[in-house]
């Protein structure tokens, strides 16, 4: 059982002053094995904070990030899954599922994690999974009027991944979960 | 030299103890054989050891304790003697024949103890005699121990009310007088030590004095234990007499210790009732006395009381008088006093903001005579002073009600202002303080102005960059905390904040403008909400007004310069204007963004990101009419084609294809122009291959082609009639051929991409239904 935190679009301090207190008390160091961050932290202090939760931190560049050296995309393997990360402002139309599917094919990953829209999404798209952890601070977004702070915790176990989404709605943390199973497909050689 | 001295002292002490023990042995023999004469002889010899001047107080004490124990045995013997018929009065006389005065007095006190117990004379008479006889010893250390002995043996024999030694109507007075007199004499001896000996040994003397202080303080303790000394007596006699001695001795060490002693030893109610008398002594103390520590302890003790006898005004007055009387007191002292008083006031009268304000006001008055502070410790005290109400109320809004609070801030230098400002911001963030009116916001920003702008005389060049960033990020976070659901008030708040941050200069604007912009965009949303009356009153806030403000605000970034940031903010505003259905406003924002792109953004990487932001934003706009949209789209595709690197060009151009196809608007689906874009992208991809071949001898990766293929599939699925299965088929064949060609350098990533794309096509074919039919003609 490997716990992966997917989090992003905090936009501190441009659009939010801090993570919600309820989230902060949930996110304690030592419990999570990997952190995947879609970008737009945007300052070093947030990077350091995430790093303190877990040293294995992967960040991709958002258009407001102070550190311009984050990569545009990143791939990594955790257990049986290949994961891909990209902030998402590079994929046009923004938030478009089919265009994101193209990115997924391009990175050749099972799970694609992107952000930018500040809307939580987790769905299966022909053999792959696309996850958007939303904005951990509920930051302003031109996509939606109602942004609830949210983040995602993935529990990767063998060929199965359970995606837990934590959303702060009206001051209470609500959890939901979605199950995905990877089929051990044999790749067809062309 | 010192080591020798210590060794010598050890030797003398050992000799003294030996002498004492030897004489004690003989004394015991005499006691056992009831030989009074010999007992007196040997006890006198024994006590002679205490005549030494060679020992430090600590060593003398060891000798003294041994003598004390021996004298107890002697006392018991004296008691036995009186029972055997010896007259106590005769005994009292007999011991006075001892040769040397010190032994004589110790013996006298010892007999005196028995005398009092016998009740053959009133306790007061014996005590009076003894306390006066002790004047015979004027040597400080010997005199202190002798009088301490007197105090120890007389403790349980004072003519107190309810004691068996109670005398006539004046009995308590007598008891009190005895103790007071002993105390006064002991203090005099103690103070005299300060001036004995050479100046170079002052530290040594002061250390020795410190070792002896409890001997003097003990008397006050005894006074406090006298039953008959009630509040009135304390107020009328005890306290004034003690204070008189304290003040008149003019000795810093004594005053400091004894004032503290008084506060610790007597009950709190007494202090509350005699506050004025007590405080009246403070201005008369030596300037070098650490008044603030003593006063703080006093205030600490009193603050535990919730029955206040106008303690505040008394303390306030007293401190004022102290500061007035000691005109040379350094500013650190004065501020520390006010700091203690403020802490006390906040603890005891939390609801009396006027008291706290008075203290601050007095402090301001003192500070105004000083100018800007230079002393580091004084500034630290001021920070402590200013932090106290913040910690108490946890609410900067309450603190701002203290009218003198900002005035105190005026007197600190800009560094301290920044420190204090950070403290304030942290308090706001920690306590989630709501600052909800423009006035309060203005007052707050004025208070923290050290962070907002460069203050006069500040050392600008020495600012550490990381510190600066942290400060400005804190201001940015602060801006997020300013909120009011009333849109009119919120607009005023935004204008107030804007006014302040615009004084910040180019270094600060990149930090402070973005949060203000997003705050404003949130306001625009609020104005669009269902509760808002669309036909708002004259002059009320409208989205348009906010957008005007936004335009003017983002403009200020040009002077930094921060074109990339400004471009992003303009695009955000354009989207907001789109949601508000304000076409001209949205167009204006786009124009500004485009101008920035053309004129200010020249870095290739920055251009790539910028163009994607432009395309992404434009793609979502539905407010534009055909003409405006065409102009903007045309420009965007033009920029795309002119990017420096071919791959970037290719990607930007095919991204533009989405500008001609908007899913949820049927009239926005121009299949032809989509295809034109994609074909253009293909041409660029081809050109890229040829360039690569020419310069490196091998064609580059086929990735771009695969990407374009995916785009073809995208639009194919969406129902773009211009794209048919044949086109897709030929593209697939093109890619396959390229990959197999000799001049192609293998790229596993591109291979995998192509493979997964083909898998996708297969997947779609197998879906069946309409989708499966569509994909049927494509062969993989």
UniProtKB/TrEMBL annotation, chain A:
Task: Specify the Calcineurin-like phosphoesterase domain's residue ranges.
Answer: 4-157
Would the keyword Kinase turn up in this protein's UniProt record?
Answer: no
- Name a biological process GO annotation: intracellular protein transport
Q: Which family does it belong to?
A: Belongs to the VPS29 family.
Please report the organism this UniProt entry assigns to the protein: Citrus sinensis
Q: Mind listing the UniProt keywords for this protein, alphabetically? A: Protein transport, Transport
According to UniProt, the name of this protein is: Vacuolar protein sorting-associated protein 29
* Entry GO terms, CC: cytosol; endosome; retromer complex
| Signal peptide residues on this chain, from the entry's feature table | none
UniProtKB/TrEMBL annotation, chain B:
- Its source organism is Citrus sinensis (Sweet orange)
- In Swiss-Prot or TrEMBL terms, this protein is called Vacuolar protein sorting-associated protein 35
